[in-house]
């Protein structure tokens, strides 16, 4: 999130007013739009501190605190903005179809069966562009799939046959990529198959 200054001009008096808003960028399909998170009336800090204040407000809105709160000026500005935000929120009627937020304990969230994919996409792309499968004459379809897994894995991170087997089994999404194109699950084979094809 960031703080945006928006100028408005009074048509009658010609006076220009500046109002500040905490804004976030949100992607809708292939377009990015800016949504106003909160208005910041009476903002009285240096422009150089806008980023710090935006970070503090972002964390406070998610129920956490920032390291920048040690700065008295930023903490006072954040207190004032959050107080105003809470007041407006309390006065606003809640719509029936408005989504409700559920707090999540971040320490209880975990990651399971994560696989790397970026390097694997690059490696398989170059494997195909170089036409390596055509050079593997005399290998069965199963052996060609294992050879592709070995070559791509060694391109990503050179290592032993055992390290290649572990990488395919535990870390990488390369097995799924190869299975999608050849129909052969190279992760289901043991390390002996990798030794044999190597």
Q: What does this molecule look like?
A:
This protein is of the alpha+beta class. It has eight helices and three strands, in the order E-E-E-H-H-H-H-H-H-H-H. The chain has a three-stranded antiparallel beta sheet. The longest helix is centred in the middle third of the chain and has 20 residues. The radius of gyration is 28 Å and the shape is elongated. The model has no long low-confidence stretch (mean pLDDT 83).
Brief synopsis:
The protein is α+β, with helices and mostly antiparallel strands.
Task: Set out the fold topology.
Blueprint: E1 2-9, E2 16-28, E3 31-39, H1 50-61, H2 72-91, H3 118-130, H4 132-135, H5 141-156, H6 161-171, H7 174-182, H8 191-197
Antiparallel strand pairs: 1-2, 2-3
Helix pairs in contact: 1-2, 3-5, 5-6, 5-7
Number of helices: 8
Shape: elongated
Which class best fits the helix and strand makeup? Answer: alpha+beta
Major sheet? 3 strands, antiparallel
The first-to-last residue Cα distance is: 51 Å
Strand percentage lies at 15-25%
The average pLDDT is 83
Number of strands: 3
Unreliable runs = none
Q: What is the domain total for the residues?
A: 2
- What's the SSE pattern? EEEHHHHHHHH
Rg over CA atoms: 28 Å
Strand order of the largest sheet: 1-2-3
Q: Estimate the helix proportion, in percent.
A: 40-55%
How would you describe this structure in keywords?
8 helices, 198 residues, single chain, 2 domains
